[in-house]
Design a protein that fits this description.
This protein has 988 residues and is mainly alpha-helical. Among the domains are: 160 residues, Up-down Bundle (Four Helix Bundle (Hemerythrin (Met), subunit A)); 154 residues, Nucleotidyltransferases  domain 2 (Four Helix Bundle (Hemerythrin (Met), subunit A), Up-down Bundle). Helix content is 61%, strand content 5%. The strands form two sheets. Strands 1, 2, 3, 4 and 5 form a five-stranded mixed sheet that branches. Strands 6, 7, 8, 9 and 10 form a five-stranded mixed sheet that branches. Helix 36 links the parallel strand 7 and strand 8. It is elongated.
Length: 988
């Protein structure tokens, strides 16, 4: 370097120096200073620290420093170290000869190179081939060997940090840096063990093996981690007793640890931590192979096997370290199936987070929520649960294990890539924190200058950028960890035995039969079809199947569920989100299994629209949408399609999706009966309104406003899955004959469009309750309706009007209609004897005519004794009698009217409860019969399997069909007695 430059303090401040005045003074004191050097120092993580270190280094070794500054690559690495690590800068100043460690082009040294170099530092490289025993004898009289080892460790840390801190992509090489630090720890331990043996009397009488655990075992070491180890000891010869050998091995192990952790003028290396050994710090430091075998086979806890996942030979007797792994490795890959394994691991993780001091919770990079430990625990849990039968997952390192989990379909590629990037980012921050002062810490430093240094060393400008990136990363990790670590799939698979996971053909048939599959041979063929092959979809299905089979088996029809799952998976096999959602989507897979083994109705709609299974991804959304929301959605799909067919197809498809939402929520017990009735009724109203809007398009101008009066169960907001939409249509009094004709065409077209055959469920618009029934006009004016009802209507028509309500179309017209007929359905003077007798005669005739011959009338949910009709007609009779004077009875809802009867003292609490139980049970049985069988029926299912499925959906235990029949018969028998008294007028 030739020439000097004088840089003003103001310019240095602009270049990033914090104490620009002092920096200007220091630059002036340098023997050689150029713009190039100023810019190189300004690019350091901490320019002020780098400059001060360079000045001190030149004072210690001017020639060596000038040589380093003269070569740009060497200078860049030197400045990177000085600006990124105060501790390594101080080491260089004390030992300037180590400058040469930064001269070569950065490259990772092999474990063999590092070990050879350290042995040479101890002074015995030429004897290394003779074995460690020879090495031990050679250092017995050399008190400086341990200090040379400490200094050699610092030199290698300097070399590794030079590569790390000067990298333009530090996160890309963070795993290489960690692995090389672990290789350095191995070599240190080899040398420390040799020195310890030299210092221990009779060391030749004992063998000692050292097993690496934790980050060192996984080769994910930090710059200043504790080194987790475990010691194994045995006699060196048959002549040495076990007790004597273990005693000597204990002294050797203790001396090894002291050499690594002791402080001297040459500094220290790191702490050796043997707390992960059997019984922790309360247990013996060294155990024999048999001692370890006894402990791990009989007493070790789940977390101890999780710790052994990282175990690998580190130093000492290779036969002992391999022997230890032979004992523990098979046990490690069984722990994932131990009782309560996942719940124990999850509880341990929560406990670790809970113990973090509140002031450190947002700064804990390792243990905090979204920190390194979250990634590690998630990966280890997946490995230990699935690695029992899949040896491809058996790795020690976090990132290589994460890659294997993604490659074989256990983790989504997006999750894997995001967690990989997050883990690298957080490890890089951890490395930067520790290398600064060579102190063990996992906390984001509170000091702004320290954060700025870390940020700049990682390519960011300011401390705030680092904090923002770290918090965003932690939130993302926490979210993904919650999805993976607390996955129901992972929890379920952890409870299965290895044979159950493998699903070997011989064991599978027996298990399938025991689980309740009627045709285990056929079920096995479906399973083989789903799990044969090497595609990613097949890999994921192989993981899903053990849990899916268990979930399907809890349903009433496992065989139906399995074949339906096969059909759905074959249809959706190439859809990227489908299997990923089942694997990662919380309870989605379990919920799907419940649906597929329970409901033909849901299966049929899913098969028409397989993408609709996405509804299960958000179980909280499996509830009815309100009418305003439904109307808005229907209006939007109508406006998006110009053609009549396209528009009505879109309307019916939306209705099908909403029907499925309700049916899924119903099967899964997330919707009660009242909410279901309102949801189905609101959906019918929104659908009819949309169909009218489509039908109007085909008419020329002049269609009058049309009000749709909902009748029957639609009007009462008590629709079932199979209910028709009973309706009447009203137009304004000023509508011309031509407009009325147009309205009739629109209504007929809307009804026709909604019942067209096709993949989507039809909705039957039934206008038979209109004046004069099928012989009457389809559409009437408001005045025409009111005139008819005032002059010619009969008592049964007044009864039908009880459940009239707004359905669709013009709301004001319907409101006027309802106001005009209120005096008929809520008669001020109630009913006379003839009117009551007419109602009873009509009900008796209906039961006689409408109950199908050859069926058991006691099992007829609608018309049988104590069934729906009995309860509804009894309540309606009470309304016709009393609603003229009791305002609370004026409701189209059966249950609300029944509640009013009770509260107004028109029937006893016991009678009301009996009728309420009967109506609700019959309604539930009718709805769930439809869900189970996929077709409507007013009869209880004759097939015991279907009846069992209905029982399960109603919350009864599997196989309690007979109890459900008993319950229904008992409930309706009691209701029938109440109806006999209150409706038929019979005495007790």
């Amino acid at each position: 370097m030739n020439g000097r430059t004088r840089t003003p303090a103001g310019e240095l401040a602009r270049k990033g120096f914090i104490d620009a005045s002092r920096a200007a003074e220091l630059f002036n004191g340098l023997p050689e200073c150029t713009d190039e050097l100023v810019d190189a120092l300004a690019a350091a993580a901490d320019p002020d620290q780098a400059l001060a270190g360079l000045v001190d280094l030149q004072a210690a070794d001017l020639v060596g420093t000038l040589q380093a500054l003269a070569e740009e690559p060497w200078r860049r690495r030197l400045i990177a170290v000085l600006g990124g690590s105060q501790a390594l800068g101080q080491h260089l100043i004390a030992h300037p000869g180590d400058l040469t460690a930064l001269q070569p082009e950065p490259a990772r040294w092999s474990a063999e190179q590092i070990r050879a170099d350290l042995l040479a530092e101890v002074g015995l490289a030429e004897r290394a081939d003779d074995g460690l025993a020879e090495l031990a004898m050679a250092v017995a009289d050399d008190p400086g060997a341990a200090d040379r080892l400490r200094l050699a460790n610092k030199r290698h840390l300097l070399r590794i940090a030079g590569r790390d801190l000067s990298s333009t992509q530090p996160t890309a090489i963070v795993d290489q840096i960690a692995a090389e630090l672990a290789d350095l720890a191995d070599a240190i331990m080899v040398c420390a063990l040799a020195i310890a043996r030299a210092q221990t009397p009779h060391a030749e009488r004992a063998r000692l093996g050292i097993v690496a655990l934790g980050k060192c075992g996984a080769q994910e070491l930090n710059y200043l981690s504790d080194i987790d180890v475990l010691f194994v000891g045995e006699p060196a010869t048959d002549e040495v007793g076990q007790t004597e050998a273990i005693s000597i091995a204990n002294r050797i192990a203790g001396a090894t640890a002291r050499i690594c952790s002791a402080h001297s003028a040459a500094g220290t290396i790191w702490q050796v931590d043997a707390a992960l050994r059997p019984e922790g710090n309360a247990g013996p430091l060294v155990r024999s192979l048999e001692g370890h075998r006894a402990y791990y086979q009989r007493w070790a806890k789940n977390w101890e096997f999780q710790a052994m996942l990282k175990a690998r030979p580190m130093a000492g007797d290779p036969e002992l370290t391999r022997g230890f792994l032979d004992i523990t490795t098979p046990l490690v890959w069984q722990v994932g199936g131990r009782e309560n394994f996942m719940s124990d691991v999850q509880a341990m993780r929560r406990r670790v987070v809970s113990l973090i001091p509140a002031k450190d919770a947002q700064s804990e990079i390792k243990l905090g929520a979204g920190g390194l430990r979250d990634v590690e625990f998630s990966v280890q849990a997946l490995q230990l649960v699935h690695g029992r039968v899949d040896e491809r997952l058996r790795h020690r390192g976090t990132l290589v294990s994460l890659q294997a989990l993604a490659e074989h379909g256990y983790v989504g590629r997006d999750d894997s890539a995001a967690l990989d990037a997050s883990y690298r980012f957080e490890r890089c921050i951890e490395h930067r924190i520790q290398v600064a002062k060579l102190r063990r810490s996992h906390l984001m430093p509170p000091d702004e200058a320290d954060r700025r240094r870390i940020a700049r060393s990682m390519g960011m400008s300011e401390a705030a950028d680092l904090w923002t990136s770290w918090r965003r990363t932690a939130r993302d990790v926490e979210s993904r960890q919650n999805k993976i670590f607390y996955s129901p799939l992972l929890l379920t698979v952890s409870k299965l035995s290895d044979d159950q996971i493998r699903l070997s053909p011989d064991a599978a048939k027996d298990r399938l039969k025991a689980l309740g599959f009627s045709d285990p041979g056929s079920a096995l063929r479906h399973i083989e079809a789903l799990t044969t092959g090497s595609s990613r979809a097949v890999e994921i299905r192989r993981q899903l199947m053990p849990a899916m089979i268990g979930w399907l088996a809890t349903g009433p029809n496992p065989d139906l569920g399995l074949i339906s799952f096969r059909r759905l998976s074959e249809t959706m096999g190439t859809t990227p989100w489908y299997l990923r959602a089942l694997r990662d989507g919380g309870q989605m897979a379990e919920l799907l299994a419940t649906i597929l083994s329970s409901s033909r109705y849901d299966i049929a709609m899913i098969e028409r629209d397989p993408a609709a299974v996405q509804l299960l991804a958000e179980p909280d959304e499996l509830v009815p949408r309100d009418r305003t929301s439904l109307d808005g959605s229907m209006d939007a799909v109508v406006r998006r399609h110009d053609g009549e067919k396209e528009a009505i197809d879109a309307v019916r498809a939306l209705r099908r999706r909403e029907l499925l939402r309700l049916a899924l929520g119903d099967v899964l017990g997330r919707i009660d009966l009242d909410a279901l009735g309102r949801g189905l009724s609101d959906l019918a109203g929104a659908t009819v309104g949309a169909a009218l809007a489509v039908a109007v398009r085909g008419e020329p101008a002049g269609v009058p406003p049309i009000g749709v009066v909902a009748m029957g169960r639609w009007g009462g907001a008590e629709m079932s899955y199979a209910s028709d939409a009973d309706a009447m249509y009203v137009v304004p009094d000023d509508a011309t004959p031509a407009q009325i004709a147009a309205a009739i065409r629109v209504v007929a077209k809307a009804a026709s469009l909604l019942r067209l055959p096709g993949a989507d469920p039809s909705l039957e618009l039934d206008a038979d309750l209109r004046p004069e029934g099928r012989d009457g006009a389809m559409v009437r004016t408001l005045g025409g309706y009111l005139s008819y009802y005032d002059r010619w209507s009969q008592t049964w028509e007044h009864q039908a009007l009880i459940r009239a309500a707004y359905g669709a179309g013009d709301e004001d017209l319907v409101a006027q209609f309802l106001a005009g007929i209120d005096h008929l359905r809520w008669p001020p003077n109630g009913l006379d004897a003839d009117e009551e007798m007419a109602i009873r005669r009509l009900k008796g005739r209906m039961e006689t005519e409408r109950i199908e011959r050859g069926t058991d009338r006691r099992r007829n949910l609608k018309l049988g004794p104590g069934g729906l009709s009995d309860v509804e007609w009894t309540v309606q009779l009470m309304q016709l009698r009393h609603a003229g004077t009791v305002e609370s009875l004026r409701t189209p809802s059966t249950m609300m009217a029944l509640d009013a009867c009770e509260s107004e003292g028109l029937m006893t609490t016991d009678d009301a409860a009996v009728l309420r139980d009967a109506w609700q049970l019959a309604s539930q049985l009718r709805n769930h019969t439809m869900l189970v069988r996929g077709r409507t029926s007013d009869q209880l299912p004759p097939d015991p399997r279907d009846l069992s499925a209905v029982a399960v959906q109603l919350g009864r235990n599997k196989g309690e069909a007979s109890l459900l029949i008993d319950e229904y018969e008992r409930t309706t028998r009691l209701a029938s007695k109440v109806v006999d008294r209150l409706f038929w007028g019979h005495a007790e």
